[in-house]
Every structure is written in structure tokens, then in C-alpha cells.
From TrEMBL:
Source organism per UniProt: Protaetiibacter larvae
The enzyme's E.C. designation: 3.5.4.4
Protein name according to UniProt: adenosine deaminase
One Pfam family it belongs to: A_deaminase
Main EC class the enzyme belongs to: hydrolase
Recorded superkingdom: Bacteria
Family: Belongs to the metallo-dependent hydrolases superfamily. Adenosine and AMP deaminases family.
Length: 372
């Protein structure tokens, strides 16, 4: 039974969970069910801060709402601890897909860092294979139930460590066995994409796409590094690109803005921003603009024509789902169904899929929204 968020986000009587959606930024170790953590912790003797699933979920939500990415990341010590065996990784991956299906996701990119899952003897390749097995089981179960979902792995390297080239090679070894892209994650400030220049050069030579966490815990120069040194096709969060936008003047009906060169580049080339509204609030990514969701620069970026997408980042830590995130944006900015469709089409067009598959995904989404 799923521990997924029980909210019922609605828009004009439409249950947002029934709409076809694309998830581009969703961490495997941030999407565990609390009950699964409890069950996996027992045989390895891992002490937990709570013994029932509701209390454990509340603990994660409280500890994650710190206003600091560094503090937020500490909660992952607990989830990664129960993801060190084949069985643990496979179960978590299978349930991850099940929860995406329940949320209406039809294409999901699941990102995770294999190098963090080796303490009980698994090799990097064995870890990737264990996760792929779970993903395949989840997809097969959905198919058997008459539901449709496709998923892919985004293989992440931890930016404060020095295994970038090795993890890039790992991703390439599995490109025809479930891996669809590469990422760097972890503490952003002080660990620029240039640290992994050789890895990104290798991926570019091999024609393998990359997204880079940037513009979350660091600003415009981090985004520039992601694009220049990281060859990023998308920006993980990317919300602080708004620091390169100046509001010249505004009145009750109109705002006049100017874009810096980098913001203009990101906009003009349709580089997708993988925003995660609740997470961005929790980690302080939008602190420069305010301390509630209505202050999020998401709407400014959307109105200016940036390719904004909506994501969960970490469903456990933010006690959320993709449908809930869309509902929060509806409440904050008054969006309608056409706006939500735009966000899904933005994500579909930025997916790490072949062009023909993206076209099919767009058609699937348009049909689903048209029938809502």
C-alpha cells in the first residue's frame, strides 16, 4: 500500500492526479515510503527517529524545512542507509514507479547517485542494475493493470566528490539498459560544474545528454558554469536565473523588465528550468524574493516565456506529489488548465527521449488534457 501524499488537488472539479504528467526532477532517495524505510531499517539495525510511518513522515517534513540546502541534504543519510543492497534498491525503485503511476506520471526520469549506495558490497554496475530491475517491475505491473508509464534513470555524480569521469562512464555503459541522462548533484556552492569538465566532454563526444543542478543554492555564475562547462541541456531548478532579470518598473497592470545576457540566452534557447516549488521554498532557493510560494519567481519566468517545468525534487522530504505541486501553483498564481498543459508540454519537449518519442509524449498529454 502506498504512503503517497493523500492530498486531492483539484482544479475546477478535475482531480489533477488523473492528468498525464511528466516528471523530470525526482530523486530516488528522496521518494521513499516511510513504511518502507521502517521495514528496511529493522534487519540492518538502523535506528530511526520514529517507529510508525506517520511520525516518520512528519520528522522528514520538519527536518527538511530548514531554509538551507546543506541541512536539507542531511535527511538523505537515513534514506540512503536503507538503499545499500540489491533488495533494498529494487524495492525502492519498484515502489517509486508505483507512486508515479498513482500520480498520473506517464514519463518519469529518476535521478540518483550510485556512488552513495556501495557500503554493503555492491559495485556501481550492480547498483544500477538493481534499480533498473525495480523500475522494470514497476512498469510491468502498471502495464498489467492497464496503465501506461515509461521511466529512465538519470545517473548522478556527487559534485563534492571526485568520481565524475567514472560515473559518466557508468552512465554510458548503461545507456541502452535504462540510463537516459547524466547529472551532478549535492552541495552546489563551492563545487562548480568545471570540476567535472572531463566527464562532460566525454558525454558530449558520445552524444549523451546532461542536466546540471544549478541556480538552487548558488546564483548566476553557477548557472553559467552548468551551461558552459557542463554542456547542460536543462537546469536542475535553475530558479536563480531570475537574479539576471531586473524589474525596471511596475504598476497595477504591467511590469517592465530587462534580461541580462545569460537570462536572455536561457530563454531564447528554450533551456528547461526544472523548478520544484515546495523544495525551492524549503531550501531557501527563493529566499531573495520572499518566504512563501507567491514570492516564487516561477510566475515571472513563465510570463516572460522561459521554459518552466514543475517537479517534486524529493517527495518524501517535501511531503508532496507532482499533482500537489501543480495545485499549489494554481492556488498561488491562479493558473488554469491551459497553463498546466503548457508546463507538461514544456517538460515533454525537454525530456531525454528521441524526437519521435517526445512527439508521441506530447500527443498523449494533449489528448489527456483534452479529455479532462
Amino acid at each position: 500500500m502506498s504512503d503517497a501524499v493523500a492530498d486531492e488537488p483539484l482544479l475546477g472539479g478535475i482531480d489533477l492526479r488523473t492528468l498525464p504528467k511528466v516528471s523530470l526532477h525526482d530523486h530516488l532517495d528522496g521518494g521513499l515510503r516511510p513504511q518502507t524505510i521502517i521495514e528496511l531499517a529493522e534487519p540492518i539495525g538502523l535506528a530511526l527517529p520514529a517507529s510508525d510511518d506517520a511520525a516518520l513522515a512528519a520528522w522528514f517534513a520538519e527536518k527538511s524545512d530548514s531554509g538551507s540546502l546543506v541541512e536539507y541534504l542531511k535527511t538523505f543519510d537515513l534514506t540512503t542507509a536503507v538503499m545499500q543492497t540489491r533488495e533494498g534498491l529494487t524495492r525502492v525503485a519498484r515502489e517509486f514507479v508505483e507512486d508515479l503511476v498513482a500520480d498520473g506520471v506517464v514519463w518519469g526520469e529518476i535521478r540518483w547517485a550510485p556512488e552513495q549506495h556501495l557500503t554493503r558490497g555492491l559495485s556501481l554496475d550492480e547498483a544500477v542494475e538493481a534499480v533498473q530491475l525495480g523500475l522494470d517491475e514497476g512498469v510491468d505491473a502498471a502495464d498489467a493493470a492497464g496503465q501506461s508509464i515509461r521511466v529512465g534513470q538519470l545517473i548522478s555524480a556527487m559534485r563534492h566528490l571526485d568520481r565524475g569521469r567514472e560515473i559518466a562512464e557508468l552512465a554510458l555503459r548503461h545507456r541502452d539498459r535504462g540510463a537516459v541522462g547524466f547529472d551532478i548533484a549535492g552541495p552546489e556552492a563551492g563545487f562548480p560544474a568545471s570540476r567535472f569538465a572531463d566527464a562532460f566532454a566525454l558525454l558530449a563526444r558520445e552524444g549523451f545528454p546532461a542536466t546540471v543542478h544549478a541556480g538552487e543554492a548558488d546564483g548566476v555564475e553557477s548557472i553559467r558554469g552548468a551551461l558552459v562547462d557542463g554542456r547542460a541541456l536543462r537546469l536542475g531548478h535553475g530558479v536563480r536565473i531570475a537574479e539576471d532579470i531586473t524589474i525596471e518598473s511596475q504598476d497595477d497592470e504591467m511590469s517592465y523588465v530587462s534580461l541580462g545576457h545569460l537570462a536572455q540566452w536561457v530563454k531564447d534557447r528554450g533551456i528547461a528550468l526544472e523548478t520544484s516549488p515546495s523544495s525551492n521554498l524549503q531550501t531557501g532557493a527563493i529566499a531573495a524574493w520572499g518566504d512563501d510560494l507567491t514570492a516564487h519567481p516561477f510566475d515571472l519566468l513563465y510570463q516572460l516565456g522561459f521554459r518552466v517545468t514543475v517537479n517534486t525534487d524529493n517527495r518524501l522530504m517535501s511531503a508532496t506529489s507532482l499533482s500537489r505541486e501543480l495545485g499549489l501553483l494554481v492556488d498561488a498564481f491562479g493558473y488554469d488548465l491551459d497553463d498546466l498543459l503548457t508546463f507538461q508540454l514544456n517538460a515533454a519537449e525537454a525530456a531525454f527521449l528521441p524526437l519521435e518519442d517526445r512527439a508521441e509524449l506530447v500527443e498523449l498529454i494533449e489528448d489527456g488534457f483534452g479529455n479532462a
